[in-house]
Amino acid sequence: MKQYLKLDDWSVIEEDFNPEHHEISESVFSIGNGHMGQRANFEETYSGSSLQGSYMAGVYYPDKTRVGWWKNGYPEYFAKVLNSTNWIGLKVVIDNEELDLNIAKVSDFVRELNMKEGYLKRSFTAELSGGKKIKVATCRFVSMKVREAGALRYAITPLNFDGELTLTSYLDGDVKNTDANYDEKFWDPVDETVSNESATVIIKTKKLNFHMASTMINEYFQNGQKLTPEVKVAKREKYTSQEVVLPLKQNEETSVVKVAANVTNRDHDTSSLGEVAQRVCRSAMEKGFDRLLSEQKEAWAKKWETSDIVIEGDVSAQQGIRFNIFQLNQTYTGEDDRLNIGPKGFTGEKYGGSTYWDTEAYCLPFYLSTSDQNIARNLLVYRYKHLEKARENARKLGFTKGALYPMVTMNGEECHNEWEITFEEIHRNGAIAYAIYNYVNYTADRDYLGEYGVEVLAEISRFWEERVHFVNPKAVYMMHGVTGPNEYENNVNNNWYTNRIAAWTLEYTLEALAHVNETDPKRYEALINKLDLTEEETSKWSDIIDKMYYPVDEESGIFLQQDGYMDKEQIHVSELDEKHLPLNQNWSWDRILRSCFIKQADVLQGLYFLNSEFDIETKKRNFDFYEPRTVHESSLSPCVHSILACELGYREKAYEMYLRTARLDLDNYNNDTEDGCHTTSMAGTWMSVVHGFGGLKVQSDRLVLNPFIPGQWNAFSFKVLYRKARLNVQVTKEQVVVRNETDEKVDLTIGEEQFTLEGKEEIRTAMKK
Ligand code: BGC
């Protein structure tokens, strides 16, 4: 754990330059706007270690699969998030010496990610080799208002000399992915144009024909006055630049404002891409840096209006939650229904793809409660649109019917290639079914079932039907050869979570079918015909529900993660020497697989999802057993433990797990933030506050709150959109205050008390002790 960032309510701040943590900072200080985003790479040259990353949503490269031993069923490619044109680049040369913070003596360094207003700022003093000192101040953002534009301002003040600045502003599409199976570059050149006014680079991917055009316009200022210096232009393949030479005067500021547009043929005609980039860039530059920035602040103020969480009395927790909400809002905005939420967002290459079960299991609740309902609906429809591909995926693996959604995908096709995950981590199908339930239960949009939901549910159910096998002597259905959410065990038999979520899917599918039959018989008929669904099949589903086998330890009554789990050597994480952690960086895979240690919530994931099915004693028993064995080496784990700990009244544990999820990247808990942030798990942090400490759930069309406040906090408050209402929930040590900010009436339960909250009404009730 590296704690070098300053605590602050609204900003992430690094004081003093920490080159040893530079790549971590590049991840943490990333910026994005749903359309594009980038790591916090420096504008000027940096020769120290750095992970360059500038990403365009939905633009990817199908990198041919490279594995040691090919197994039938493997996908042909892994979809890589693409490092694309670097539009922020500036080469800063002062009197023949290039500025490079890896070489210069740096002081007064401050880097700030202002999350309230959505920009990244940096300032420092650099002493060059001859003792010349300059002060540099930068600010940049990708616009939330003009999604295809980004802007930066870079100001230099010489502190002890008069001299000359040679500034080269460039667009560089000649970039690589660190993660490339065959060490090739993924982009080919298309066109470069450069004039005194602007410069453009157009590149296209080697496969799939994605085109991207970037245009930049630079303006120069000295002491607030615009300059019109002579511009020297240059270009080469995938690269254009404009160079100016400006006199520097001691204590006088010289600055460049660089505006860039990045457009792709996902949104525009390939043939007009260059013109579109020019147009977008010109109109952004006409607004100017200050206006673009004030629009940015307004756009972020709107985002925070529906998604902010306030924690009083604990800056560390406050900063953590805002950081998580900020990253989520910059990753996915819901406007483009072809997009999804990648595990690293715009902060790194790792994990490729864009869509994991993370979306349904973790992210959906955040977007459900903080954005327009259609955004969550779009996330479900995204999977509906991939149903055909999921059917093909199941056929490819030898199933005669049903659908298996991919573990990782960009376009519906599976692109994950580790057999124990691709073929075995099939619980992901259950999360997709569960998300439909979650959405319908939260929004009451039951029409969704007839429109899209039932088709997906039925096809997933068919997959489970074929995936289980009947064990005659025992008269039970079992599922062998699976990997549960806990990836530290592979190829196990009867993973409790997978068996349970499979049977639950069958139950919910039957319920959904009955609902459509009851409310819209015509649609029901049409669906039965379309799906060719027979009574024989649905009665088989009922039989599986009745006879599903669940591994349980008879003695203790614990749900066993899988058959034979108790036969492993049982050790607690607390018994391990610190130096072994994280296990995935210190132990061989073989040792991990043989151990009892659990990477992430598995049985507990089931207890969280299907919460109302289990009594408190059952939850307690399982939590007490699994928590000491869990290493939380998946970022998705601590939030589930935090939420359950809240329900069980384990206050300290709930808080500990909350901090771990909220500050996972800020404090680099898992020692891997340099690869990028854990964006999808950030939605889990939000869940820890709202579902955990707030105790929010929807039961029988009532919004239920069961708040508890950690001892470290004086108060906390959050906002949720619920059906057509917006509620502000404030929890102090003494009371819960719920204010209805809209005119919609809401049926609400707080603890044991029931209320009907009229429009604009506020209710207060004492906290139960
Ligand atoms: C976790 C998976 C998760 C993936 C992407 C893995 O480490 O084990 O559950 O889907 O990361 O976040």
Automatic annotation (TrEMBL):
<keyword id="KW-0378">Hydrolase</keyword>
<feature type="binding site">
    <location>
        <begin position="357"/>
        <end position="358"/>
    </location>
    <ligand>
        <name>substrate</name>
    </ligand>
</feature>
<dbReference type="GO" id="GO:0016757">
    <property type="term" value="F:glycosyltransferase activity"/>
</dbReference>
<comment type="similarity">
    <text>Belongs to the glycosyl hydrolase 65 family.</text>
</comment>
<dbReference type="InterPro" id="IPR012341">
    <property type="entry name" value="6hp_glycosidase-like_sf"/>
</dbReference>
<dbReference type="Pfam" id="PF03633">
    <property type="entry name" value="Glyco_hydro_65C"/>
</dbReference>
<dbReference type="InterPro" id="IPR037018">
    <property type="entry name" value="GH65_N"/>
</dbReference>
<dbReference type="InterPro" id="IPR005194">
    <property type="entry name" value="Glyco_hydro_65_C"/>
</dbReference>
<dbReference type="InterPro" id="IPR008928">
    <property type="entry name" value="6-hairpin_glycosidase_sf"/>
</dbReference>
<dbReference type="GO" id="GO:0004553">
    <property type="term" value="F:hydrolase activity, hydrolyzing O-glycosyl compounds"/>
</dbReference>
<dbReference type="InterPro" id="IPR005195">
    <property type="entry name" value="Glyco_hydro_65_M"/>
</dbReference>
<feature type="active site" description="Proton donor">
    <location>
        <position position="487"/>
    </location>
</feature>
<dbReference type="InterPro" id="IPR005196">
    <property type="entry name" value="Glyco_hydro_65_N"/>
</dbReference>
<dbReference type="InterPro" id="IPR017045">
    <property type="entry name" value="Malt_Pase/Glycosyl_Hdrlase"/>
</dbReference>
<dbReference type="Pfam" id="PF03636">
    <property type="entry name" value="Glyco_hydro_65N"/>
</dbReference>
<dbReference type="GO" id="GO:0030246">
    <property type="term" value="F:carbohydrate binding"/>
</dbReference>
<dbReference type="InterPro" id="IPR011013">
    <property type="entry name" value="Gal_mutarotase_sf_dom"/>
</dbReference>
<feature type="domain" description="Glycoside hydrolase family 65 central catalytic">
    <location>
        <begin position="322"/>
        <end position="687"/>
    </location>
</feature>
<protein>
    <submittedName>
        <fullName>Glycoside hydrolase family 65 protein</fullName>
    </submittedName>
</protein>
<dbReference type="Pfam" id="PF03632">
    <property type="entry name" value="Glyco_hydro_65m"/>
</dbReference>
<feature type="domain" description="Glycoside hydrolase family 65 N-terminal">
    <location>
        <begin position="14"/>
        <end position="266"/>
    </location>
</feature>
<feature type="domain" description="Glycoside hydrolase family 65 C-terminal">
    <location>
        <begin position="696"/>
        <end position="757"/>
    </location>
</feature>
<dbReference type="GO" id="GO:0005975">
    <property type="term" value="P:carbohydrate metabolic process"/>
</dbReference>
<feature type="binding site">
    <location>
        <begin position="599"/>
        <end position="600"/>
    </location>
    <ligand>
        <name>substrate</name>
    </ligand>
</feature>
